[in-house]
Amino acid sequence: MTDIDVADAAAPAPERPGGVAILGMGYVGLPTALGLHEAGVPVIGIDHSERRLSEIRAGDVDLIDADQRRLDKALRQEDFQLTADPARLADADAVMVCVPTPVDGHRLPDIEPLRSACRTVVEHARPGQTLILTSTSYVGTTEQLLVAPLRTRGLTAGAEVFVASSPERIDPGNVTHTQQETPRVVGGVTPECAARAVQVIKALTPKVHVVTSPEAAEMTKLLENSFRAVNIALANEFADICEDLALDPLEITRAAATKPYGFMAFQPGPGVGGHCIPCDPHYLLWQLRAARKTAPLVDRAMTAIADRPGQVVNRVLETLSRAGRGLAGTRILIVGVAYKPGVRDVRSSSALDIIDLLSGRGAEVGFHDALVPEVRLADGSVAHSMPRPSGSDWDLVLIHTVHPGHDHDWIADCPLVVDTTYRLWPAVGAAAGRA
After folding, report:
1. How far apart are CA 273 and CA 331, in angstroms?
2. Which residues is 335 bridged to in the sheet?
3. Is residue 288 part of a domain?
């Protein structure tokens, strides 16, 4: 199936849901709720964390400016409600499950948050509701965690309730690819399930691509982020090769990107963080291992991504060695600990791994991040951002994340700089010497 309105292929669906409950008000759930509300849909935002709900009510959340304005407006409206009571799920015509799907320290999927959320949805489901799973997970998740338990309750998907998968496509901090402009994939259990899910998703974006099943939608998301993981690993590998050959990796990438077909530019960096790429492909690999199947290319890419922070530390060691120094006792400042520019999110940030590795080898490590005031380290301690750093106070500055709109000229005063982003160097100047 393609970009079509499936309403003609199924029983008539409501033009617009009378109200949508969002289960999970995190980095996906909150922008989703705001997008629906702006489209005129009443929203019930549900989260088990009262602290998270308090942060939302106070406006103390990490959103792009447009969504921050939407939140300020929504909080003044009666049809935008926040609650920790899961029983409110029954008050909505549609429910969207927007909970995280992380991996544990062994890179194995931790599906308990999703299991718990789906149990809650099934418990409170009522006839006539449309239930949409947006969380990224293994193929068959919608069937196993929603459809089968609902059937046990006597609610058949496509008859009493309508179930679909529509994996999220939200890029935190990205003002270019907004929800309204980003197509969404929908796969319903039946054509009517798809039709009803499309009516919900169309409140977020008019660009909806319908596939034949929830499983097809789930696999689509796994392909998207596995593709990104493989290409980021390749970009990092080429960056290392370029450095060995005294070439600028970004110059080479920009030059290759002038080809109008067959090439897509991916940028090298210190590692991969956030909610998608470090996690999602592992759901595919985990499922394949259980079936005694392999995906060697994806597996190798994920290993390379996990190894990247260690490679950054080796760059630091090489840089210090050329300057006649060792790592023990060296004062190192990490610039930016968020996993990407423009956000406060440090989930799976490679900066945390780099800090842990450097500290474990005896370095004195601090950090400066204009958006992140503090981070919890692997040993349980809390480190605080240096508010006004001076490059001359540090033996080496390691540039990890460069937030736009902030001054970094002070870095030029540091005797040694390792720029893992390959982006800031022209602004630093020749005074620091290339590393």
Report:
1. 25
2. 368, 399
3. no
> The CATH number of the domain where 184 resides is what?
3.40.50.720
Mean pLDDT of 125-150: 98
| CB distance 375 to 337 below 8 Å | yes
Tens of pLDDT along 377-404?
988 899 999 988 998 999 999 999 999 9
- H or E segment and range at residue 334: strand 331-335
Segments forming the whole domain that contains residue 357 = 299-432
* Among candidate residues 161, 179, 211, the one where a domain is terminated: 211
Say if residue 14 is in the same domain as residue 154: yes
The pLDDT assigned to 423 comes to 84
Choice among 242, 276, 279, 414 that is catalytic: 276
Q: Respond yes or no: is residue 242 known to be catalytic.
A: no
Residue 414, domain member (yes or no): yes
CB of 397 within 8 A of CB of 414? yes
Q: Which of 187, 211, 235 is at the close of a domain?
A: 211
Q: How far apart are CA 47 and CA 81, in angstroms?
A: 11
Tokens 């023990």 sit at which residue? 328
pLDDT in tens, 148-202: 999 999 999 999 999 999 999 998 888 888 999 999 999 999 999 999 999 999 9
Answer whether residue 292 shows pLDDT above 60.
yes
Q: How far is 50 from 67, CA to CA, in rounded Å?
A: 21
In a domain, 273, yes or no: no
Domain count, the chain: 2
- Residue of 420, 404, 414 lying closest to 313 (CA atoms): 420
